[in-house]
Every structure is written in structure tokens, then in C-alpha cells.
Amino acid sequence: EVQLLESGGALVHPGGSLRLSCAASGFTFSNYAMNWVRQTPEEGLECVSAISPTGDITYYADSVKGRFTISRDNSRNILYLQMNSLRADDTGVYYCAKPPGMGTAGWFDPWGQGTLVTVS
Amino acid sequence: DIVMTQSPESLAVSLGERATFKCKSSQSVFHNNNKKNYLGWYQQKPGQPPKLLIYWASTRGSGVPDRFSGSGSGTDFTLTISSLQAEDVAIYYCQQYYSTPVTFGGGTKVEIK
């Protein structure tokens, strides 16, 4: 069974930093692109970052570009999101999500259970 | 970015009745090369992550009941629940994956009348 388990969410002050992790199991992690999708009351569902299977291609939403860094450790099957210079509008639930193949775009199945980031 | 617009924002339907909601994209998500619409639908229940229902606009995900069906092409799409069950109370989102960034609609909330 494919499983994604996020961790690292917390309450942080504006300007602070957090690192989110997503532990993947049940599939060959290194064969798939991965995404971070956040859900906020203001913006709804937003794909904030994505990474190719080998990590050489990344995508960032304009809202997080220059502040967030996505990375992956294929030897440990873990996806990361380093979040710096956090702002109040970064508050939300952050999900890792698996697209169907090597490309970063696609439908997402499954999603992790989410981790809550609160900037206040 | 492709903007996804869903309607209505909320919908109240009696148990056993049909529920239909719409999703419109700001540009076509139909790819001429493979003749597919790059459109998915998700169901989100309170406190849970979104769950994939439909991809390629009309293909049901694994284990999705056949009362859920998707239709449409180009810019206009529909999700139909043929006979609403109590467990279908949720928010439903559409998503385009035709271009990066993938984008989602604002959702339609389904309640029991």
C-alpha cells in the first residue's frame, strides 16, 4: 500500500523557519516526481512546490519562490520542504502528494494526511 | 496559470437523488496529441486529505464507487453522483494538470437536504 506521512508542522513566529518531511513507502520512490500542496482558508488548494524523480528539476509557486526549498533523499525515501522567512499567509495544512509518474504534473494519488503550519 | 472555477459553491441534495456540479477552466485542458482531458476530481471530507475520484475527466480511481462519474471536454466539466449517499457529504474539487502549475477549483460543498 502506498503511504505518505508528513511531519514537521508547528507554530512559528513570522520570519521563522521550518522543515517539513514526508516519508514515503509502498512504491519505488525514486521513480516518481513528488509535490507539496498546501490548503489555506484564503487560497484553497495550491501546489507550492514540486520535484522531479532525481531532484534536478524543481518548481515553486511565485508565492514561495526564494523562501522555500524542496529536496528529496531517494536513499531514505523522504521528501523535504525547507521553509524560511515564514509569513502569516503561509499558515495552512501542507500535504505531500504523489503524481502518477515521472512528470511533476498530474493527478495526485495518494495524499499524505497533512501537517499543520501556523505562522503567528 | 489556468484558473479553475467551480459551481455552485454549495449544494443540498436529498439522499438517493442525483448531485451534479460543474467545473470550468480558463483555457482548454484537452490535449490533441493523446485526445485526453487533463482534468481530475477529488473528494475531501472534514479532517481528511483530498481523495482522488476521477482522472482524465472520466476515469474512476481505484475503488471509487460507480455512482461517481465525470464528463465534459475542453473547458467545461461535470461531476455527477447518481444517487447521493450519506457518506458522500464532502467538498469536491476539480484540478487541471494540463500545464504547470497544476491548479484547483475552489470546491463545491455537498450537504444532505
What features would you describe in this structure?
The complex is a heterodimer of chains A (120) and B (113). In chain A, the strands form two sheets. Chain A has a six-stranded mixed beta sheet, with no helix packed on it. In chain A, strands 1-3-8-7 form a four-stranded antiparallel beta sheet, with no helix packed on it. Chain A has no helices and ten strands. The mean pLDDT of chain A is 96. Chain A has 120 residues and is mainly beta. Chain B is mainly beta and 113 residues long. Chain B is built from no helices and 13 strands. In chain B, the strands form three sheets. In chain B, strands 2, 6, 7, 8, 11, 12 and 13 form a seven-stranded mixed beta sheet that branches. In chain B, a hairpin with a 4-residue loop joins strand 4 and strand 5. The radius of gyration of chain B is 13 Å and the shape is globular. Classes of the chains: A mainly beta (120), B mainly beta (113).
User: Biggest interface pair, residues each?
Assistant: A-B, 22 and 24 residues
Structural class of chain A: mainly beta
Main structural class of chain B: mainly beta
Task: Write down the secondary-structure element order of chain A.
Answer: EEEEEEEEEE
Largest beta sheet of chain B, briefly? 7 strands, mixed
How far apart are the termini of chain B?
36 Å
Q: Count the DSSP helices of chain A.
A: 0
Distance between the amino and carboxyl termini of chain A: 37 Å
Order of helices and strands of chain B: EEEEEEEEEEEEE
Query: What percent of the residues of chain B sit in helical stretches (DSSP H or I)?
Result: under 10%
Radius of gyration of chain B: 13 Å
What radius of gyration of chain A results from the CA coordinates? 13 Å
Number of strands of chain A: 10
User: What is the average of the pLDDT values of chain A?
Assistant: 96
What is the spatial order of strands in the main beta sheet of chain A?
Answer: 2-10-9-4-5-6
Low-confidence stretches of chain A: none
How confident overall, as mean pLDDT of chain B? 97
Write down the overall geometry of chain A.
globular
